[in-house]
Amino acid sequence: MSKFLYRLGSTAYRKKWPFLAFWLVLLIAVGTLAGLFAKPTTSSFSIPGIDSVVTMEKMQERFPAAEDATSAPTGNVVIQAPEGSTLTDPEVSAEVNAMLAEVRDTGVLVDPETTVIDPVMAAQGLAAQMTPQLQAQGVPEEKIATDLASISPLSPDETTGIVSMTFDAPTVMDVTAGEREAVTDILDEYNEGDLTVVYNGNVFGAAATSLNMTSEIVGLLVAAVVLIVTFGSFIAAGMPLISAIVGVGIGVLGVSLATVFSDDINDMTPVLATMIGLAVGIDYALFIVSRFRNELITQSGANDLEPKELAQRLRTMDLATRSHAMGMAVGTAGSAVVFAGITVLIALVALSIINIPFLTAMALAAGVTVFLAVLIAVSFLPALLGLLGTRVFAARVPGPKVPDPEDERPTMGLQWVRRIRKRPVTHLLVGVILLGIIAIPAAGMRLAMPTDGTATPGTAPREAYDMTAEAFGPGRNAPMIALVDAVEVPEQERPLVFGQAVEQFLGTEGVANAQITQTTENLDTAQILITPEFDAIDERTSETLSQLRADVTDFEDTTGATYGITGVTPIYDDISERLSDALLPYIGIVLVLAFIVLLLVFRSIWVPLIAALGFGLSVAATFGATVAIFQEGWLGIISDPQPILSFLPIMLIGLVFGLAMDYQIFLVTRMREGFTKGKTAGNATSNGFKHGARVVTAAALIMISVFAAFIAQDMSFIKTMGFALAIAIFFDAFIVRMTIIPATMFLLGDRAWWLPRWLARILPNIDVEGEALGEYDEQRTRELRDHQKESVGVGAS
């Protein structure tokens, strides 16, 4: 592979225009298609096959008018009267009706004349309709009052009302931004007056999850500073940024275009693809440009020259020498980039094994972006460097000289690894114990899906959620629907069975109310609305759901009927449980994959083993730090602590695995390269660390800055993921890869590279270090020698 990459890199450098044109045309084409055909992303989540979804599908069969609660184009408007007033006051009522009239006139809602009405009138009509019916059924007055309060759009103190509306679209994904804004603009205008008007639900929740560009800009600016310091050149620093932006542009536009073919592309997918694409795109380009610089210096033999003289020497270097240096850079660092990208892809694609469509879509989108980053790093980047020619390291930055690869003076990296070499046991123990202590809070991790209750405080969905809980009780935000199937029950006994179901539900701890809301004409199925005592993200609501389901066996034995529980809250709870159950198996899969990939790369038993264990340490510490700050509110950094989003841990494991293996490969390949060329194990470790520490440090700082910048996003998942990825890179790069790994390598000595002979014969020899490229170096040396002889001969004649 190194030979192929050598030819690719050198060819792209010499024949730059076809490579540049291909990627730029692809960027324009994908952007054009996305602009013409892309559909809005969705804010809903669902998993086929889980109990709540099966029950939802069954309910849609029995009640054709029923909608999927997670994708229905619905929303709620919560209206609160001014302080000291109620919604029944004539002045307040007039203002509410004026607002709702404007909303009805937008023409974007289904049947607005009968659904978008004053909460006071709606509550009165509901009471007038239901009370006689329930009285005729012999329902006690107290239960009638409770039932009405559980579904009334008007709060008991008449200060708060809810207006539900359905947009004229098949699903929430089909509601355009213009249609949504036609309603929200009116609501926002009235919210600035005496009324408090906020909104939430499927449609309006999507409006609160838009991505602003601040995070990308901040991340790119910090990355630019790190690159300038790393290369000492403004022009060279721009190369990784340009290549990363091109890759992310194609990847994110491709994700938008994918909405034409898939309904599983949710709001967080393009943000995650952007985050990962920027980080790996810059890092992969950084590794290749850095190696290209080293190869140019080696080819020129100019490591002892001053910066200005070195720049002059590079400017006079011929195209053949520069293209050879580019080929060597892509053949060596590019090989490591390819395998680093493969590890990220393996981790992301493995997420599809869990069989969760929206998670698979997120993982594949991020994976495609990583794949593009690899291709661009080994083809577009060499062509871009070829376009600049000898000017790539021009516009030098005043300041300390960038260390040259052959300089014998100790760099900071070499000084650090020498310190570890003197006391490897101490550094190993300190690193392991420190990460172990940080990991302790992870034992109390709680998982929950994103809801309006986890939205950023101050946003309309969060305010609507909090106002609803305060005015109607927290359970109003977590309704459940029990679908009671009485097909096997004699027809005359079915009403009694439905009543028994209601009584059983009311007797379950954590249930505030249960009432029949709808039955089929032949009374073979009933919908029973269950209102819990607690909100959607409270652990006690999950316990209530579990108890309701646990009681289904007794109910079936007693009545001959059965039931299932569905609704947004049960669906999200089931998703959290599925993800939680998949977490440990997925960790096992990732660790095994890490071991196998690194076994192939390093042809060693111990190196993959300590790399995988180090990955486990960094992930555990990341979970601990994330839980402590975002869930428990330690240090007061987060003013609104919430449970960790259900799919964050499993996504984090996949991403951190890939990124951790990046640093393992880039650091340890240089160590192995020295060992295979005859250095002692200790000297190979020190020398490899010296060569790789600066670029890996720069890469880690870039990734940390890119990820940390996303903490400023409003989306809870992205905010937490940005922090978790940033702290994970810090733990893994600086504590695991640059402290624990070299300490362990020094302790193991030659045994670090031990591989059983029988296994060595079976494993393919993957030349990540570029050993096979020696013949190209020899060939170039002969060409230079022949050229010098010719020059001498011409001069003599």
UniProtKB/TrEMBL annotation:
<feature type="transmembrane region" description="Helical">
    <location>
        <begin position="217"/>
        <end position="237"/>
    </location>
</feature>
<feature type="transmembrane region" description="Helical">
    <location>
        <begin position="268"/>
        <end position="289"/>
    </location>
</feature>
<keyword id="KW-1133">Transmembrane helix</keyword>
<feature type="transmembrane region" description="Helical">
    <location>
        <begin position="583"/>
        <end position="602"/>
    </location>
</feature>
<keyword id="KW-1003">Cell membrane</keyword>
<dbReference type="InterPro" id="IPR050545">
    <property type="entry name" value="Mycobact_MmpL"/>
</dbReference>
<feature type="transmembrane region" description="Helical">
    <location>
        <begin position="650"/>
        <end position="671"/>
    </location>
</feature>
<feature type="transmembrane region" description="Helical">
    <location>
        <begin position="723"/>
        <end position="748"/>
    </location>
</feature>
<feature type="transmembrane region" description="Helical">
    <location>
        <begin position="244"/>
        <end position="262"/>
    </location>
</feature>
<feature type="transmembrane region" description="Helical">
    <location>
        <begin position="360"/>
        <end position="388"/>
    </location>
</feature>
<feature type="transmembrane region" description="Helical">
    <location>
        <begin position="692"/>
        <end position="711"/>
    </location>
</feature>
<dbReference type="GO" id="GO:0005886">
    <property type="term" value="C:plasma membrane"/>
</dbReference>
<feature type="domain" description="SSD">
    <location>
        <begin position="217"/>
        <end position="387"/>
    </location>
</feature>
<protein>
    <recommendedName>
        <fullName>SSD domain-containing protein</fullName>
    </recommendedName>
</protein>
<feature type="transmembrane region" description="Helical">
    <location>
        <begin position="325"/>
        <end position="354"/>
    </location>
</feature>
<dbReference type="Pfam" id="PF03176">
    <property type="entry name" value="MMPL"/>
</dbReference>
<feature type="transmembrane region" description="Helical">
    <location>
        <begin position="428"/>
        <end position="449"/>
    </location>
</feature>
<dbReference type="InterPro" id="IPR004869">
    <property type="entry name" value="MMPL_dom"/>
</dbReference>
<keyword id="KW-0472">Membrane</keyword>
<feature type="transmembrane region" description="Helical">
    <location>
        <begin position="609"/>
        <end position="630"/>
    </location>
</feature>
<keyword id="KW-0812">Transmembrane</keyword>
<dbReference type="InterPro" id="IPR000731">
    <property type="entry name" value="SSD"/>
</dbReference>
<comment type="similarity">
    <text>Belongs to the resistance-nodulation-cell division (RND) (TC 2.A.6) family. MmpL subfamily.</text>
</comment>
